[in-house]
Automatic annotation (TrEMBL):
A single GO cellular-component term on record: extracellular region
Family the UniProt entry places it in: Belongs to the FAM3 family.
Pfam families: ILEI
The protein's name in its UniProt record: FAM3 metabolism regulating signaling molecule B
Gene responsible for this protein: FAM3B
Species the sequence originates in: Phocoena sinus (Vaquita)
Domain of life assignment: Eukaryota
GO MF annotations, alphabetized: carbohydrate binding
Coiled-coil region(s): none
Alphabetized UniProt keyword annotations: Disulfide bond, Lectin, Secreted, Signal
Localization (cell): Secreted
ILEI/PANDER domain segment(s): 59-147
């Protein structure tokens, strides 16, 4: 009997997708933090915009703003929602995004304790359906659009709550993710 030929290693796709995105689309993956040591990550077009390796991820809500037309990263920032008064600066950061921007948001640890009404409204204006459901240590990821509508079939938001009885990290929720392909904007 002849030995079976080994299958070739699968080709790596942008942002570690299982299948490639179609032409004229942007690949993205949003991963919330999970437990104390699993850091949040935002990947866009195979570039880690926020994450442990880039050294720009922290407790709270982590945000990246990308120009929808050009695909260029405009800004990244994290906002601690457990200590300090960072809800106002986060609201200003969101509102300062120019029209035709993609806004990627992920939580690590706590994104809700000091999250104020103005910030919730700013996030809802981008299309969030879950921001009012966020609780202490909820894992939350969100893709928002400013100045245009994303196509209906795009996975945009997911939330997972802290639950001492069910969580894998002793009261900390597991990480969650959304990923997909965003049709490129008109140039």
């Amino acid at each position: 009997m002849r030995p079976a030929a080994a299958a070739p290693a699968p080709k790596r796709q942008k942002c570690d997708h299982w299948t490639p995105c179609p032409p004229n689309t942007y690949a993205y993956r949003l991963l919330s933090g999970g437990g104390r040591d699993k850091y949040a990550k935002i990947c866009f077009e195979d570039e880690v915009l926020i994450g442990e390796k880039t050294g720009n991820v922290a407790r709270g809500i982590n945000i990246a703003i990308v120009n929808y037309v050009t695909g260029k990263v405009l800004a990244t920032q994290y906002f601690d929602m457990y200590e300090g008064d960072n809800s106002g600066p986060m609201t200003n950061f969101i509102q300062s995004a120019p029209p035709n921007s993609l806004l990627f948001m992920v939580t690590h640890d706590d994104g809700s304790s000091r999250l104020k009404e103005d910030a919730k409204k700013a996030i809802e204006a981008l299309g969030s359906k879950e921001i009012r459901n966020i609780r202490f240590r909820s894992s939350w990821v969100f893709l928002g659009a400013k100045g245009f509508e994303l196509p209906a079939g795009i996975q945009r938001e997911k939330i997972n709550h802290s639950d001492n009885a069910k969580n894998r990290y002793l009261g900390w929720p597991a990480e969650i993710q959304v990923e997909g392909c965003i049709p490129k904007g008109p140039s």
